[in-house]
Amino acid sequence: MFSSRVNPLLVVSAAVGALVGLPVVSVLTHIFSGGTGTTWSHLASTVLPDYVANTLVLCIAVGLGVIVIGVATAWLTAMHDFPGRALFEWALVLPMAMPAYVLAYVYTDFLQFVGPLQSLLRESFGWSKADYWFPEVRSLGGAVTMFVFVLYPYVYLLTRTAFIERAGGMLEASRTLGLGPWRSFFRVSLPLARPAVAAGATLALMETLADYGTVSYFGVQTFTTGIYRAWFSLGDRIAAAQLAAALLAFVIVVLLIEWRSRGRARFHNTTGRHRPPGGRRLPGWRGWLATAACTLPLSIGFLLPAYLLLRLALTDSDTPLGPHFATLARNSLLLAALTAIIAVTLAVLLAYGARLSKGLLAPALNRLVGLGYAVPGSVIAVGVLIPVTRLDHWLAQQWQQWSGDNPGLLITGGIAALVYAYLVRFLAVALQSVGTSLTKITRSMDDAARSLGLGQGATLRRVHLPILRGSLFTAGLLVFVDVMKELPATLVMRPFDFDTLATQAYTLASDERLAEAASVSLAIVAVGLLPLVVLSREMSRRRR
Question: pTM here?
């Protein structure tokens, strides 16, 4: 029988919650730390205003961009019928497989002065450099463009679902009241979808604030680049922690804005209609205009860069695909697989513990774990390194006193600390997937298992896990892909002479060896396509 005493899984939840919260606490404790003060004073008087201004501009511009593109494409594919609609329904999520820093490398090679596009223009029209103006891709505006066309699928996915689930019957009612398509959109559909739009934009802003590769490569000074510079170039961990705390404040502000934007509003579908709307037919040029509107973000965010990557990889005969590439792939796969297995295991324990708990503590701890995804990788890296390095030195000292030998850095010298940082960052992804699926299993199954004499562990093993098999695979796959693409935490915390596909792509691109970076980037994109294939199949199945 299920015990009414303290749930042992609650202890696991508390321990995991404490470990996830430790990096954030470690960062926050250094806000008012004095240190030497020299580095912070130098940063405050020179580059800190640029960090604040550039980060604000990025957030505002990317937020507006992803909302416009995400809402427009979601509205077209959910509520209208036009040429190619069935294809765009799932294809518009493909840019999610393209990390923003990979997009930055590709378009830099394509749009720079000696790149294919400008060379073609000069050859075709006989221009010289002084005869025309071309926008600089390696700029703040270029970074905004990269983020918008990679991150708009967050808004697209959530908003399209909201349109389908909430707008169908309501639109029919609005049309009977004499509202046209545009008035129905602004007065009915968009207000109903506002929570989804806000949630998607928030996710996109979290990714923007967490990015390091794009802004660093484009020379845009943000808090993320400042953290890396303070830690490695200036060697001041206190200044790095203070910058990390400032970045964390940006994240908290974004989350508060999203939370307050909802207010006390609640959105429910009371029409009794749950089937997706058939879609209003767009005739003639209107239909082809809708096709062009959906083709543009898909082409810029995925089709063109994927073609350019493949072209670079195939035309450069010196691209290394030998033992070194195999080592990079092995390191990336090892980290991703190990993190995914641990994350899914912990997610099952946390979600099942919350299911068995009758109090509020377990769900609250799960929400605490869920906040880890909102913390940028650079902040987590700093927050992990400070306490773990101290623990490492203490363990080495104790080992030396006991055995007489100095073992070196046991945790930070290997991949353990890096896997820990990944878990803090991405455990929320697995927990969300597992927790959502677990809520769909009725309590009557637990009662039936109890009547058959099964305990908590046996019920989990023999009843829930077989039902959750598909969700566990999806959760592991999502964590696997996120780890493969993660750059800031990996750059900061990777062991000496331990590179991954992501770090190698960044290093090659930083050295302007873009053709060599293409093969490595293609591998990252190919892995990123895996969950999107699963997602697209699910979208196709639920389309009708």
Answer: 0.80
Which pLDDT tens digit goes with each residue over 327-347?
A: 888 899 899 999 999 998 888
User: Which of helix, strand or coil describes residue 126?
Assistant: coil
Task: Assess whether the region 1-32+317-510 and the region 52-264+276-315 belong to the same CATH fold.
Answer: yes
Give the dihedral sign, CA 521/219/141/209.
positive
Q: What is the pLDDT of residues 338-383, one digit of tens each?
A: 999 999 888 888 877 777 777 677 677 777 777 777 777 778 888 8
Cα separations (Å) of 56 from 29, 146, 205, 237, 248? 25, 16, 11, 24, 13
Residue with tokens 């006193």, as numbered in its chain: 401
CA–centroid distance for 40 within its chain: 30
- What CATH number labels 1-32+317-510? 1.10.3720.10
Which positions ≥6 away from 330 have C-beta within 8 Å?
A: none
The secondary structure element, H or E, covering residue 13 is helix 8-28
Alpha-carbon 79 to chain mean position: 28
Q: How far is CA 221 from the centre of its chain?
A: 21
Strand 280-281 relative to strand 80-81, pairing: parallel
Closest Cα to residue 293, out of 23, 82, 16?
Answer: 82
Is residue 33 classed as helix, strand or coil in its secondary structure? coil
Distance CA 391, CA 22 (A): 13
CATH 1.10.3720.10 fits 52-264+276-315, yes or no: yes
| 3-state helix, strand and coil shares in percent for the chain, rounded to the nearest 5 | 75, 0, 20
Q: Any idea where the domains of the chain sit in the sequence?
A: 1-32+317-510, 52-264+276-315
The owner of tokens 């394509």 is 110
What is the Cα–Cα distance from 530 to 518, expressed in whole angstroms?
Answer: 19
